[in-house]
TrEMBL record:
Name listed for the protein in its UniProt record: Cytochrome P450
Statement: the UniProt record of this protein carries the keyword Protein transport: no
Keyword terms, alphabetized: Heme, Iron, Membrane, Metal-binding, Monooxygenase, Oxidoreductase, Transmembrane, Transmembrane helix
A GO molecular-function descriptor: heme binding
SUPFAM superfamilies: Cytochrome P450
Major site of localization recorded for this protein: membrane
Residue sites binding heme per the record: 448
Endpoints of the signal sequence: none
PANTHER family: CYTOCHROME P450 89A2-RELATED, FLAVONOID 3'-MONOOXYGENASE-RELATED
Family stated for the protein in its record: Belongs to the cytochrome P450 family.
CDD domains in alphabetical order: CYP77_89
Compartments (UniProt record): Membrane
Domain of life of the native organism: Eukaryota
Amino acid sequence: MKEGPLMEGWFIILVSACVCVIVRAIFSLQTKTINTPPGPLHIPIVTSIQWLLKSFSQLEPILRNLHAKFGPIVTIRIGSQRAIFIADRTLAHQALVQNGSLFSDRPKALAASKILSSDQRNISSASYGPTWRILRRNLTSEVLHHSRVKSFSGIRNWVLQALLVRLKSDSQSNDSIRVIDHFQYSMFCLLVFMCFGERLDEGKVRDIERVQRQLLLGFTRFNILNFWPRVTRVLLRKRWEEMLRFRQEQEDVMIPLIRARKQKQGKDEGVVSYVDTLLDLQWPEEKRKLNEEEIVTLCNEFLNGGTDTTSTALQWIMANLVKNPQVQERLVGEIREVMCGREDREVKEEDLQKFPYLKAVILEGLRRHPPGHFVLPHAVTEDVVFNDYLVPKNGTVNFMVAEMGWDPKVWEDPMMFKPERFMNDEGFDITGSKEIKMMPFGAGRRICPGYNLALLHLEYFVANLVWNFEWKVPEGGDVDLSEIQEFTVVMKNPLQVHLSPRI
Ligand code: HEM
C-alpha cells in the first residue's frame, strides 16, 4: 500500500519524458537545424587566443587549407564570435550584389575601434543605416564627384612634377633608388590637399604622414585591445596608452587645419575640400554639426583610404614593369603614339582614355597584387540562411579578395603578370556588378567609393613615370615579389630601381 504514490510519481515522470522525446522527435523532423558553415575544431579560449595572435597574412594560408578541406565557405570561432570566410567569387556575388541589403552591415565596433572610429561615425565602420548613408553620400557627391575630382587636376600636376624632380635628382647621385617613400609622400601631398584644401609645406605634410602611419602600422598590434578590454587595460596598459597617445597626436596635428578651414568658410576662395563639406554636414537625428573629433576621424579615413592603398598598388605595378621590360616597352610604345610630335613631357589626364594597354597594366596589377587581400569585415543585418548555412547576425563575413583574383578556373596562369589578358575585354567591369572575376575594391553597396579616383591616380602616375624614365633593375639587383602584411599587403623587400631619363 505504501508503494502506491511513489509508483504513481515514477509513472508520471516516465510518461512525461516519453512525451518530451516524441515531441522533440516530431519537431526535429519538421525543422532541420541549420548550422553555421563548417570549420576547424574549437577549444574554448585556447583556439580564440591562437587566432587572435595571427596576422591576416598568417591567416591566409590556413584559410586556404580550410577551404580545401571544408569548401568555399568556412567558419572560425573567436570567443563567442563567428568569423565566416568566403573564397568563391560566385558566392561573393550572391552575397554582396544579389543580397546586398542583407550583407552590407559592419560588425559592432569593439573597445579600441570604438575610440578610433568615434563610435562608428565614419563610412567604413558605420552600420548599414542613416549615418553610413549620409557620410558616404557626402563623400561621393562632393569631393569624389567627377567635376570636383577634375578641379584637383592642378594639384595632381604639381605633385607629379615634384615627384619627377625628386626621382631625377636621386637618379643622378644613386645607381639604385628606393621609390616607395617617394610614392607615399606624393600620395599624401595629393590627399592632404583634397582633404584640407591647402598646399601645405613639406614639414606639415610629413607631420600628417607621421601621425597617420604610426596609427596605421600599429593596426595589428592594437587589434588585440579590442578583445577582453578589462583584461588588456591592465595587462597591456602600455599599448592602450600608446594607442591613445597616437590618436591625441593625430588630433593635435589635424584640429588646427580644420579650424583654419572653418575660418575661411563662406569666403569662397579656391577649391572645396573634404573638410569644407564635413563642416557643413549635420547629424539629422541629433540636429547638430559634426564635432572636431568626428571630423578628425573622417579625415583619418579619407587619408588612409587614399594614400596607403594607392602607393602600395603603384609600387607593385612599377615592380612588375621593371621585372617585365617587354610590358614596359609596349606601354611606352602606346604612349609614344599619342605623344609624338608634342613638346611637353606630361601625359595629360585627357590623354589617359587613349591608352587601353595602360588600363590593362593597372587592372593586372590590382588583380595580381590587390593591396588588401580581404575586404573590410562585413556583417549581416539579420540571421540569414545562405548556401544552406546559417550566417548569424553577430558574426563577421569576410571575403578573400586575393584568392578570387588568382582563381585558375577564371584566370590562365593566374600568378603571371600578363596585362594582355585584359585587352580582349571590352571595358572590364571592376565593380563586379554582373559577375565577380576579381574584386580589389570590393563589390556591392560597400564597394570602395574611391575606386575611380584610385584608378585615375594610378593611370596618371604610371603613364608619366614610364614616359619620363626607363625603369630597370640596378646592377646585380633583383625584383623580389615576396609579400608582407602591413596595413596593406606590401613588398617585403621594397622596390629598388635604376632610372635613366628617356630624353
Ligand atoms: C588602390 C586604391 C584602393 C583600394 C585597393 C581600395 C580598396 C578598398 C576596399 C577593398 C574596401 C572595402 C570594401 C568592402 O568592405 O566591401 C574599401 C572601402 C573604402 N575605401 Fe577604398 N580603396 C582604394 C582607394 C580609396 C580611395 C582613393 C578612397 C578615398 C579617397 C577610399 C575610401 C574608402 C572608403 C571610405 C571605404 C569604406 C566604404 C564603405 O564602407 O562604405 N579608398 N576600399
